[in-house]
Specification:
With about 110 residues, the protein is mainly alpha-helical. Helices cover about 90% and strands about 0% of the residues. The model has no long low-confidence stretch (mean pLDDT about 90).
């Protein structure tokens, strides 16, 4: 029951994080001064938070699975989603690097 409760807490935290990043994205979108970089980063943060929520939901569902094949499939899906997160984080880093280069060239 402890693991189930912990997984439920992780899922709740992931849902809150998704909501927070969506609100931040809305705030950035409404801001007149927001740069393309800020808007892009906010959208990427929302995608990452949504994936983290999917992972948390799957971990919670695993607690109720009884067939090893289903558990294995769920764990494989989690690994694929973690790979997606890594890809989004890499894309964020590349955009940050590009933005830094562009702004330093303009100075």
């Amino acid at each position: 029951w402890y693991t189930e409760r912990l997984d439920m807490r992780v899922a709740e935290d992931a849902a809150k994080d998704l909501e927070r990043t969506q609100k931040e994205q809305e705030r950035v979108e409404k801001a007149d001064f927001a740069s393309i970089y800020q808007r892009t980063k906010a959208a990427m943060d929302v995608e990452i938070a949504a994936i983290k929520l999917q992972i948390a939901d799957i971990k919670l569902a695993i607690n109720y699975m009884t067939e090893a094949a289903n558990i294995g499939t769920a764990k494989t899906t989690i690994l694929e989603l973690k790979s997606d997160i890594a890809a989004w984080q890499l894309a964020k880093a590349e955009i940050r690097m590009d933005f830094t280069q562009v702004t330093s060239e303009g100075e």
